[in-house]
Amino acid sequence: MKTTFLHTNRFVWVTAALCLLLTGCANRGIGPQGGPKDTIPPVVVKETPANGSNHFTDKKIEILFNEYLQLDNVQTNLLVSPPQQVPPEVKAQGKKVVITLQEDLLDSTTYTLDFGDAICDYTEKNPIRGYQYAFTTGDRIDSLEVYGQVVNAEDLNPVSGVLVGLHANLSDTAFSTLPFTRIARTDSLGGFGIRNLRGGQYRLYALQDVSRDYLYQPGEALAFADSLVVPQYEVETVQDTIWRDSLLVDNQLLDTTVLRVVDSIRIVENTYVGPSDLLLWFFQETKVRHYFSRAYRDEQHTIRLVFGAPQDSLPIVRALPPSAIDSLRSDSLWIDPMQYALLQANPTRDTLVYWFTDSVAIAQDSIYFEMTYLKSDSVYNLVPQTDTISAIYRAPRLTAKAREALDKKNRERTLDLRSNTKTGFEVYDTLRIISPIPIDSIWADSMALLEKIDTTYKSVPFSLQPADSVPLGYQIIARLEQGKSYELRLDSGAVRDIYGVVNTAKKFPLQLKTREDYSTLLIRLPHFDPAMRLQLLDEKDHPVRELPASADGTKFEYLTPKVYYLRLYFDLNGDGQWTTGDWAAKRQPEPVFYFPSKLSLRANWDFEEVFDYQARPQLDSKPRELRKDASAKKK
């Protein structure tokens, strides 16, 4: 027996060695051989309790797949409908996904767990898409469905990844006070499907839901349907024999039908998917949160105030003496810096710069003031707010040598003026000079605008006009002719800033474009409406020109030759700009339509196009090159 065992053992080892040798020879120089990449998602093998269960009372659901799994961003991907404030606990255990419900279930209610792309195979992360698990705590699964799309109202792009919800409560207040009755999430094309509905009437909404509470909060982007949504049934009457052949399998009524008998005629109610063409116009309200961000004093002679949103009015600012901040501090050397301040406000008033002109005021390292401004409350109403602001200048630490060099630079500083002059100056532009420091004085007799004729120069009359309230620049108003060359000259000392610093002599040459350098575009509208406005767009879908529509044709002149796109909107409130929606007023955004083709303009050409916005469906008209996921802009 012992000899037999040794012989057998030797035979096994020799056989194994030969196999390895042959395998190695066969693969020499080739390397490891792998099969084709796995692109097949996991497949459901078993669901416990069964998918579609009635009278569901369990807290745990187990779903068995045919391969090992991993979960990808399950808290974001998983959508439970009706929504639950405490999300289920979801774990991957080998080939199983185990879901533990954390909230009590409602009576006689159908629940749907939509996993999105959360369940993936372990090796290649292939997601199982569109997998849903449904059950009911009542007698039967609700089976109605509605479908539609969410589109950004301003640019007609699909909006992906936003919540779409139905409310059985038809009150407008339900949107902001109650979680949705049923929910879904939009796909990459903005499409949505809300399933397992029971019959009735619903209000339909889309919601950005930044707060993740399934309620509308002021400031969140949204959409709402003007009319009620009513999921429908299609009723089909069938003769007795046809009914038996087509609707009975082994004498069992198919699960997707409901049977009733009227005068011996069987009537089958097949579930009808619909409505399936719901369209929601997604928009961001103009309600933005107004707040004061902070004060900056990067330079000793300025204070910059930054607000979180455009301001309709300027704040009221009152300087405070040191004793108002600290009763032990003296006010003997203090002066009110606001008496010596120039205010520079940008067009939207969300950035204000105070330029101090008095040396004593500037020398105060710490400036305190009281500011009253309008701030948003919790529901976005503007209410007066008074804050105490400190603006402290911290001088940089410098060596003695660096300090001496800086002092010398400041003593020798000149006013560095710039201009918008250039070769290829636009014929519709206005000539300007720009200063980095507010201008105190400017002398026109120390300036000259000259037309260059061959080698000589001819004086051109001009006038000066402040470019803004401070001002930080001046406009040179003159009659400039297309194609001609000019030169703007400034003598030394022609301009002085608020700190007494003057410019050195400057020359700014420019040459105007000619009409032949431009294109002209005429747009005719067969269905003209005086409320229409036309926007010329660049290749990034941004407006570059806008004009009110004209019954005789709308002409865009002096266009730089390149590719443009075109859209129109209906200015329903007549304010001269596109107006977004308003939930409180139940006002939809102003409607937008795209011209279906790009416009390739060439120099010295006049183009004419007919824009019939009714010629094709609104969503199909946008050129493919401009179509993007609108939600990507908000990320």
Backbone shape:
globular
Q: Give helix % range.
A: under 10%
- Beta fraction: 35-45%
Low-confidence stretches: 1-32, 240-259
Terminal Cα span? 77 Å
> What strand line-up does the widest sheet have?
30-39-37-33-34
Radius of gyration: 37 Å
Please give the number of β-strands.
47
Annotation field: number of helices: 7
Descriptive report:
The chain is mostly beta strands. It is about 10% helix and about 40% strand. It has seven helices and 47 strands. It has a five-stranded mixed beta sheet with strand order 30-39-37-33-34, with no helix packed on it. Strands 41, 42, 44, 45 and 46 form a five-stranded antiparallel beta sheet that branches. It has a four-stranded antiparallel beta sheet with strand order 1-2-6-5, with no helix packed on it. It is globular, with a radius of gyration of 37 Å. Residues about 1-30 and about 240-260 have low confidence and may be disordered.
